[in-house]
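Collaborator request, handled under Task 6.
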Amino acid sequence: MNPKLNIAIDGPAGAGKSTVAKQLARRLKLTYVDTGSMYRAVTLQALRSNTDFNNADALAQLAVKIKIALFSGDGDFRITLDGEDITQAIRSPEVSRQVSLVAKVPAVRTNMVHRQQLMAVAGGTVMDGRDIGTRVLPNAGAKFFLTATIEARAARRKLDLSQQGYQVSLAALITEIAARDAQDQNRAVDPLVPAADAITIDSTNLTAGQVIKQMEKHINVTGNDA
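Structure tokens returned to the collaborator:
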């Protein structure tokens, strides 16, 4: 495997990006980068500091001030906020409900994209998010857009939340995910759209392993990013 290779995986909430990206990174011995967790970290800090989610300037200032660190290895992923491990805290339903409001702020996105590009400058990453192939890593060696029906995505999110001790109705999750899709797809800066050269994979009826097998068919293991 070429250590310079960067792989971009985009898609809507609940499509299975994180699960697939982590497993793919482990298989290819690359570093996994969960960009969505960075926006969640900003969201968590905004909740803790009672920041107004409609105040773009306040959210932008908050994003500049906080220190975010990502750790990936041996199939494990952790994120810290100002030194505190927040890996579980950022997965709360409240963070999920508000994160799109943070992610649509142009100055927040500029800040996060810059950090993400620095992480990938040496290559060797599998990065997932919503604008990786279009904005963060436009020259990635392989690009994928992972999708699934909203019902399948809601069911997966419900299972994830129940395993973390949160009980949320399927109907509520469908409504929440539909709203988040609308926010992500219609934001003015870096909207959620497949890159022109991305391979789209519908994971509705596929396991993570089956998705990875499809991805591996399109990954050039010897080529460099442009």
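The cover message to the collaborator said: "The CA atoms of residues 158 and 168 lie 7 Å apart. Residues 170-186 form the longest helix (17 residues). Please let us know whether this matches your experimental observations."
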